[in-house]
Amino acid sequence: GPWRMAAAEDHGLDTEALRKAVDEVFKVAPIRFCVLVIKDGHIVYERYANGKGEEDVYEVDSLGKTGSALIIGAAIHAGLFDLDTPLMEYGLEPQCDPPGSDCWRMVACPAGVDCPAGPLGFYPNITTRHILSQASGCVEGDGCTTLPGTSFSYDSGMYIQHLASLIAKRAKEPSKEWAKRFMAKLGLSTMFNHDELGQNFSVGGGQFMTCRQLARISQMIINMGKWPTSAGASEQLISREYMQQLLTPQFLVRGYTYGFLTWLNGPRPEEAQADCCSARWGNEQTCRNDALNRTMFSDDIFPDVNEKIAVSMGWLGRYMFSVPSRNLAIVTMGSSWAASLQCPLGSARPTDPPGMGGYDDNFLSGLLWQIMDKATRTSQSSKLKARKRHREAHGLEDVHLAEQSPEIGTMKQELGTLTERNSSMPLTSRQSGGSCSCLCPPGRGFGYCYDMPEEATDCSSLEVLSQAAVDCPNTGVTMQCDRHDVVNSNCTSAGEAMRGDIGSRTNRVWGGHMGCSETEACREVAGGLTSVVICGCKSRLYGVYGCTWDAGLCSESLTVYNKLGSPLPPAKGQEAQPE
Prior knowledge:
The protein is α+β, with helices and mostly antiparallel strands. 20% of the residues lie in helices and 18% in strands.
């Protein structure tokens, strides 16, 4: 059914405290589209900005991996396969792209290890647990370099996609159909409508969803695999044992902050053998994700945060926090790049290493959690006080809002973010020089198609490349700074260093394609826990890797498209609502 709405005070929270916390979230993490707080299965606070509303959909990128983990759990619960039987024992051959290539062949072998020399590499040993835990030893673009279960090998491509093929193999039907049928039980029947991977769903994420739809995935985690039925009962759709595994660090020999396709904050287990991993990527000289010191949210930046929190993350600051112990979910979507002193962005000093393109989701997600944490804690005394204040403020004898909350749907800040195509390139003339499909920097999964003049044979035309400045949306940057050494936070340099493929060794640098300027100088945030500089960034050019030429013209219905060529879903009014 639809989400139930309630006043924050009915669940031991304070609307004013939430409002102040969300105010700060929007200030420190531009450009932000939504913040949604779910407590005890009710929406108790919801705010949208930058022209967005509850019906707007966003590309969730890797945040969608947590939804994939739920689908795999449902498949295991249905008896299709288990966590620890090798995929080959189910008859699943390697699913390489392109087909027939040796994607599992070892391209490097750790010292002292007797690695297989054949095309299968360690694939005969690969299990569902290895892939769910990002521990296969293989990453698309890099190949296979370590033994399964011994390293953090974060993949969003063909290796993780084996899980969809496994469902198809065992269920004897397209994995997308199986996944859609399961997600329909959660009110998410449209989740995979834009995956465009043929008959498979995208295990690595990239779906288009509203903030409220994402919250259903978080609620499933909080419910530990149970979901209410239309009859008013509840059904165990995924085993509790699997959900506990999803929320437990896997393969402690390689680290302690990753479960099943989901990041984890929590105390470091005594058995952990590696200081890994943080959700940060960049130049290895200046930014390492395998140098964790405490918990994921503590690290060297914040005070100890030992609470167990499942954290789902997507490119450019799309976060979902699931806290079963508090029956709490927080969803926030935006277009925010983050960098920290541990993972800097830009080269402000002559002595800095070149290309410091640091991207630090660990820092920004931790900062937003610190801001929201206190406002989402409850106690019996705080609950009684909050309800009393609410009753007095509204002249009510009993507070029990079933349909609306004073804060819900009432706060929209119009900040001019692009929501519709506004191009100066004429698309109605149907020119005959082919077309250029361009992805917006920095590394977005969507873009625009442009018909080209007759003489065109590629996308090198400055007229096309400069269309990014017209058509592509803005990006905010949150950079941790040292108030005693503010030279380390240079917005102009940050724009030159922003890359669109963080974590890849192909170094497709977007350098110079983003123009950034300082919008807020270095200041303390989160009650003085740290300091940040805020930059506002606008696309300048699509860049050499941003556009692809095709001999055909743009489809009339595909002038705005996602990375796999399908149309973007409608912004408002046409997206199916949660069932």
